[in-house]
Design a protein that fits this description.
Elements (H helix, E strand, L loop, with lengths): L6 E5 L4 H13 L5 E5 L7 H8 L9 E4 L2 E4 H9 L8 H9 L2 H22 L10
Parallel strand pairs: 1-2
Antiparallel strand pairs: 1-3, 3-4
Length: about 130
Amino acid sequence: MNSQNEITCVYDGACPLCTYAAVSYQRATFEDNVALIDSRTQSNLPILERIKENNINLDHGGVFMKDGEMFGGVIAMKKLAKTDYQTFSRAGLFLKAFGSGRWAKIVYPILKTIRDIWITLSGAGKINPDWK
């Protein structure tokens, strides 16, 4: 699914923060080739098997793929932060501000905790329940 020139963001569609960030990223970038994949509703795609083969647990964070490389979690957030944005969207500003190495280490665990609480309270459950 991911050609060399395509950017792919795999996110948790049951998490409003994840969905907002993914959709906002797609709208705010200069790139016109951003594919969004909701790992819950599009669970039969080969890319999800590739993510698992790369030992990336989607319950620990989303995945960002560009130029054939795959990044997960906080590293994905840092890569998203390096994107050029055509608008000063809230998502773009958020990623620029918190995607830097130092801030990402502080903010990412907080966002992940909020996501985990939301997923638990909503009853959505884990994406990869067998993973640790």
